[in-house]
């Protein structure tokens, strides 16, 4: 098992970076997804159109392209961090945050669609009753509809998050590395497979188990939570 | 609209408010547009030599169309193999024989739970040790697409079969069909019909995932953005054009899904008196559709 003695700490660092990517992207994707969902059901037509346009664009564009555009387009061409000579962020930080941006925007459109389907599962009577007692649109959504919608979509939401954790591997497109130069999990796996052509199967198994360790708890947690928080009707 | 229950039909005050909100939104939108425009201006993205390549036939003939063909080739082969894989493993997992269903279940769950890019890297780097030279990027991409999307399609078909009324299978067994015949002639045709929209939705995912081939250096559409940038230094316009191509391709697939969904719903309605879709004569159905 000299594979572990040689690469053990690098593998760990790689997965920690992947985890960091997943935690930031997941948080932003959920927040942005709620905002998009509110846009899409709001009484203001312009907001609905904007929401629909954003969702349609990003759902039908490959994540690889979004990721590619975030770094090579936004940073290198449009200088969103400012002119290159004035940027104080390190290269690894620049790439990390662009990967987070791409992943969160891309994932948020899926979160939005899940939430919207959740809103549709809330019985009409709930929203009608809320309106009858005089709640405004935002009160109705905030106090009555969204809490119930959220509780009913925990499982599909977990699927979106699991897909996002797996999608962190696409960050290899722009090369996301730690301060010490270790790639995130998929990049690290590629490096190891290039260096150790005789141990490819073992390397693949190690990284597969690593991803299962990250995704399986999310699934179990969602299964448990969706029972615990189920809306009893 | 299903969500309009969230608010009343706007009265005069709400109407006025909506106008105000719309106005504010448009102002914000205008500001964002101005921001993008000026950023483009500042970095010279509007220069005509960045955009004129797209009205040059050579650019389309040598870069974009070959890229599209490569993307569609990976999509065609990948989706065909994924469908076959999906069918085989769905049937395998539904089998009554434990030594078939359990391994099939493990395979499907495994490929669903790991990132596709890991699969592609694995297949790519595995080829030399299996004696396959030169290493094929195309097959690494296509087999990666097959294993992941095939597993998802297997689960879709399995869900379709399990959603059928229990009487379907029981009736088949009662008239003396073997379990294989029941699956082939009774359960699968109905399950595939009801699940076709979901399967096509998965094919949209597959089409988008062909872009992962970029990471391995497969010369699909996204790689052409890089080529265009090398030749014309127009990364932003190139990325926009390619994104539009992807969206157009997916829209076409989406329209096919909607069309099929409408078609199958129509079948279910005509078959309503007997309770299942299998009673409809497909020829008569075609004729009905043609009218």
UniProtKB/TrEMBL annotation, chain A:
Gene3D superfamilies per the UniProt record, alphabetical: MetI-like
Show the GO MF annotations. transmembrane transporter activity
**What does the UniProt keyword field contain?**
Amino-acid transport, Cell membrane, Membrane, Transmembrane, Transmembrane helix, Transport
Q: How does it sit in the membrane?
A: Multi-pass membrane protein
Q: Where is the ABC transmembrane type-1 domain?
A: 15-222
Q: Name one GO biological process term.
A: amino acid transport
The entry's protein name is: Glutamate transport system permease protein
A GO cellular component annotation in the UniProt record = ATP-binding cassette (ABC) transporter complex
Please report which protein family the annotation says this sequence is part of: Belongs to the binding-protein-dependent transport system permease family. HisMQ subfamily.
**Stretches that traverse the bilayer:** 20-41, 53-76, 96-115, 157-180, 200-225
Cite the source lineage: Bacteria, Bacillati, Actinomycetota, Actinomycetes, Propionibacteriales
Compartment(s): Cell membrane
Record-linked Pfam families: BPD_transp_1 (PF00528)
InterPro entries listed in its UniProt record: AA_ABC_transptr_permease_3TM, ArtM/GltK/GlnP/TcyL/YhdX-like, MetI-like, MetI-like_sf
From TrEMBL, chain B:
Could you list this entry's UniProt keywords, alphabetically sorted: Cell membrane, Membrane, Transmembrane, Transmembrane helix, Transport
Decide whether keyword Membrane is in the record.
yes
Cellular compartment(s) = Cell membrane
Q: Which residues form the ABC transmembrane type-1 domain?
A: 68-257
Xref: Pfam families? BPD_transp_1
The cellular component terms of Gene Ontology attached to this UniProt record, alphabetical and capped at eight, are: ATP-binding cassette (ABC) transporter complex
Q: Which GO terms describe its molecular function?
A: transmembrane transporter activity
The chain's coiled-coil residues are none
Q: Which InterPro entries match?
A: AA_ABC_transptr_permease_3TM, ArtM/GltK/GlnP/TcyL/YhdX-like, MetI-like, MetI-like_sf
Chief subcellular site?
membrane
Entry-linked Gene3D superfamilies: MetI-like
PANTHER family tied to this protein: AMINO ACID ABC TRANSPORTER PERMEASE, MEMBRANE COMPONENT OF AMINO ACID ABC TRANSPORTER
Output this protein's name. Answer: Glutamate transport system permease protein
What is this organism's lineage? Bacteria, Bacillati, Actinomycetota, Actinomycetes, Propionibacteriales
